[in-house]
Design a protein that fits this description.
This protein is mainly alpha-helical and 306 residues long. It has helices at residues 3-30, 40-49, 61-78, 95-116, 120-151, 156-159, 165-169, 173-190, 209-212, 218-243, 251-275, 284-304. Helix 1 packs across helix 10 (218-243) and helix 5 packs antiparallel against helix 8.
Length: 306
């Protein structure tokens, strides 16, 4: 494992909450407000880590393990994604299947932790989460399949970055463009962003992700917030690996371009959330089905030009 790989991965884990700060700043700018400080997510995490956790007598070890297993799953998935032009710390043929499985594992433990409270309200959020995931996961896997086809590899290290540089210039360019759109929709859904979900909502009838973590507090809630930030960074890194596959040859320049691109995606998310309203719950599956259809079209196009 090279020094560049370790350094870029460490930066990814350290800078993940910064994306949330950029999104909030962008939304505040569109609303004509100053908004919270750019580093507010870090302050929130530090404040929560200094507090104590409160556990209901109806919960078991499953509730306490949920945030930790969720963070472990997303962190392990992050190790499979190349960051800043360097190879991923863990790479092997077929690792994109493990990548999707680790994200599913993190979601599963968040859901069972919510169910362990015995609250019908949190059970409602868990039901909505697994329902929407059944639409989002096929779109994600089909999008990754397109990358595997055009790059000729089953490892994320080669499916992203230089592995798709030549296909962009060839006949596979339209398929990759379609995958970018599909994965951006999956990013919004997987990270509970508008128009699929609203991370700041307090309306009972529209809550999805937030309702599942209402009973978590202190360090447990800090763990959940950091997991959400890391998952957002992870999906942004996927998109950057597809959109900007070229390398300058300089480690510092590649790292700077990667970070700027990730923050650019954060700005794009803020613009989307400032321009669109949250759609009705019954319309959310339509968005994810549309993402799945786009990814499927991408697969057909990628196979047609092989």
């Amino acid at each position: 494992m090279s020094v560049e790989t370790v350094s870029f991965q460490a930066c990814a884990f350290a800078l993940a909450p910064l994306m949330l700060g950029v999104i909030n700043k962008t939304k505040a700018a569109f609303a004509g407000r100053t908004g919270a400080p750019l580093l507010q997510p870090y302050h929130d995490l530090w404040k929560l880590l200094q507090k104590g956790a409160v556990y209901s007598t109806t919960t078991s070890w499953v509730f306490r393990a949920g945030p930790l297993v969720g963070l472990t799953g997303v962190a392990a998935a992050m190790l499979l994604v190349p960051v800043g032009g360097a190879e991923a710390p863990v790479a092997f043929q077929g690792d994109f299947i493990l990548f999707a499985g680790l994200l599913a594992l993190a979601r599963f433990w968040t859901v069972v932790a919510a169910l362990d409270t015995g609250s019908s309200f949190e059970g409602m959020g868990a039901s909505r989460e697994v329902t929407l995931s059944s639409f989002a996961e096929p779109a994600l896997l089909l999008g990754l399949l397109v990358l595997a086809i055009v790059s000729g590899s089953l490892s994320l290290t080669h499916m992203l970055g230089p592995g798709v540089a030549a296909p962009w210039r060839g006949a596979s360019g339209p398929a990759l463009a379609i995958v970018v759109v599909a994965l951006f929709l999956v990013l919004l859904a997987e990270n509970a962003r508008i128009p699929v979900d609203d991370p700041n909502t307090h309306l009972e009838l529209t809550m999805i992700h937030e309702v599942m973590v209402l009973d978590h507090s202190g360090p447990d809630f800090a763990c959940i917030l950091y997991t959400s930030a890391l998952k957002l960074f992870l999906f942004a890194a996927l998109l950057v690996g597809i959109i900007i596959p070229f390398r300058t040859g300089s480690v510092v320049a590649d790292g700077a371009v990667f970070l700027a691109s990730v923050l650019g995606i954060a700005v794009a998310i803020g613009i989307v959330e400032s321009s669109l309203a949250r759609v009705r719950m019954t319309q959310v599956p339509h968005i994810l089905i549309g993402a799945g259809v786009l990814a499927a079209v991408g697969v057909i196009l990628a196979l047609a030009v092989r």
